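User: Quick one: structure for sequence A, then sequence B.

Assistant: Sequence A:
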Amino acid sequence: MFPKLFTIGDFFLPTYGVLVALGFVAGLAVSVRHARRAGLNPETIGNLAVYCALAGLLGAKLFMFALDWEYYSRNPGRLLSVETLLSAGVYYGGFLAALLFAWFFVRRHRMPWLKVADVLSPGVALGHAIGRLGCFAAGCCWGQECHLPWAVRFMNPDAHAITGVPLGVWLHPAQLYESALTFLVFWAVQRRALKPHADGAVLGLYLTLYSIARFGVEFVRAHDQAFPFGGPFSTTQWVALGLLAAGLWMVTKTRK
């Protein structure tokens, strides 16, 4: 679509990076507001969000390497290539890495873990929804071939060079599906966060709704990796099912 905002010589500003940065700033602003409402230190929450973003970027890349290990083991030079650095990575890898880092950070600072998670959840949803628009602009995380009225074609050679998206083929706009659904998730968890709730209720709702959305979108995503266990579900869908179970357990527990 439009992977480069502008180019000067060999330098270019990637649209994906700009939208991810905008998503982070928007999500951070939302989380800081919720931190004030919850009586938490906004500066500490802001620092935690920055550290989680860095941990998430690392986790997303490591998860991507793990899923495509056969390819990267044959092509080690691709590990630090421009294409790899600009790729989105695997969201769940980033989410789990950020969640693990947040747990250690919160314990070290003696903060209420579930309350902090509730504060961060709306910001994570908003930032992710905006970031998926960047995926669409870059061409990564593309969908399967289809011929529906809303199918899209990528024609920009730069998009193919950076992400490998097939050109001239009608595809499901899987990135837009996920972005739209994640905006709805943000709307739902934002409403829940603004109402009185038990600690962990917002996190549980986020895990439940996003896992359902991602599980569904995966059916129209293009996959290079073989599905584990020889079944119909991708690795991401299995992770989604695990987090869905955790989310439903938290929603049930906090309702009681």
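Sequence B:
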Amino acid sequence: MTLAVAAHGCGEDSAAPEASERPRSDRLVDFSQKPPYVNALDLDPRDGRLLLTTNKGFWRIDPEKDTVEPVRGTVTANGKSSPVGTFLELKVAGPGRFVGSGHPDDPKALPNFLGYMESDDAGRTWRVISRLGDADLHKIVLLHDRMYAFDAVLGAMLFSDDGGRTFTEQFTPRGLIIDFEVDPEDPDRIFASTEEQLFRTEDGGKAWRPVDRAEGIRLAWPAPGALYRAERDGTVRRSSDGGSWERVGSVPGEPYKFKALGAEELLLALSDGTVMKTEDGGRTWTEEFRP
């Protein structure tokens, strides 16, 4: 860990360097392309290594040794195969078992939208389970014995009770959903954000209402009474009820993906693949990895 970012207290004058003050690395991210730059952040439960996917590929990171290893995967469907890893949505479902979505790196081999897919060998080989050619899942949440996902093609939340074989759909507010989280205690209560607005549903997506405005909100909900949001300027806030928010700290870059390790222990990937870590509910942050 090479940098500590501290927020002394919870007032508005507690700050870390602004996102614009911190140079971004292009080692793992191609900033010449349109966002999103970072697609997924997770941990391999077998060895604790970071799993990061970006618009350049799929990376396996050992923060202690400061090493980065590309993961070269292949997806197969209908007897055809393609490399996969760029713009990959990934969620760890167990040791060696990943679920995901995305696009083939070879656009001539398979449809542009890979639907829902699974891997049993830590991302080396993938098989498409459902919705090939029809769905582009930008995030997957496994909670309450259910799978939740946002489909960017349909513009809807998808819900599955059979492991992604079939889904039901509920349309989301207008605009691309960039993140969402599900209440740990209530399977029908979901917060979702677009580039400029935070929304909430209490009935599993049948009706949505706006609750707050801010740019680029990214979300984490690791425990009851601990809903986090990180905004584009690096500000991190926490809410105990989903209605009122306390500013707790900030990070020196544009937040992209949370990975919750506990109620107060979280990882947060920035736009260039830097991974920050907090162990005190977002008040102080240290660099876990920097590309």
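Confidence is low (pLDDT under 50) at residues 5-20. The domain at 175-291 is CATH 2.130.10.10 (Methylamine Dehydrogenase; Chain H).

User: Thanks, that's what I needed.
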